[in-house]
Design goal:
By secondary structure, this protein is mostly beta strands. The protein is about 10% helix and about 25% strand. The chain is built from 2 helices and 12 strands, in the order ββββββββββββαα. A hairpin with a 4-residue loop joins β8 (about 85-90) and β9 (about 95). The chain binds zinc ion. The site of zinc ion has 6 residues, from loops. Zinc ion binds next to loops.
């Protein structure tokens, strides 16, 4: 059986009602839970995202040589070395990595998707597993990276390096 008349999915990508973007360009934007989120809860599906021709601070790497752009409010997800959100580029979902309380800022581990980042920065999160300089997975020592969940394309790129 084949599906021949599926409508475009570009505007029907599943999106949670549980988050909101706070802040502005001056103070920095952040994504915050506006209700409790359950561990594993899918917050968005990435199927409708646009492929990006070049990596920027707003793109997410989804494969060895592919990036996507414009993840709606999740464009403003900040980095965390103790993430409560996971971007899974195999399932093509954004989900809660653990239970999240209303009001908590959401963050994901940038090197879990990014091999080499367009705009590296220093992390001051203070978590036990803080990586310090965040430049992408390529620059992290194996023992540091082993403490974090990463996507399949990062594991593939590590094996090639
Ligand atoms: Zn950190």
């Amino acid at each position: 059986m084949t599906m021949t008349s599926e409508p475009s999915t570009s505007t029907s990508t599943m999106m949670t009602d549980g988050v909101r973007v706070l802040g502005d360009e001056q103070t920095g934007r952040r994504v915050v839970a506006i209700r409790a989120l359950q561990a594993g809860e899918v917050l968005a599906e990435l199927g409708g995202a646009q492929r990006a021709s070049v990596a920027t601070r707003y793109t997410v790497q989804v494969d060895v040589d592919a990036h996507i752009d414009g993840l709606w409010q999740f464009t403003f997800l900040n980095h965390s070395c103790a993430p409560n959100v996971r971007i899974d580029t195999t399932a093509m979902t954004i989900s809660a990595a653990r239970n999240v309380a209303a009001g908590e800022e959401l963050g994901y581990f940038y090197p879990s998707t990014e091999w080499m980042m367009a705009e590296p920065f220093d992390c001051h999160c203070g978590s036990a597993n803080c990586v310090g300089r965040v430049t992408g997975a390529a620059d992290l020592n194996a023992d540091v990276l082993d403490k974090h969940w990463v996507n399949r394309h990062i594991t593939e790129l590590r094996a090639r390096a």
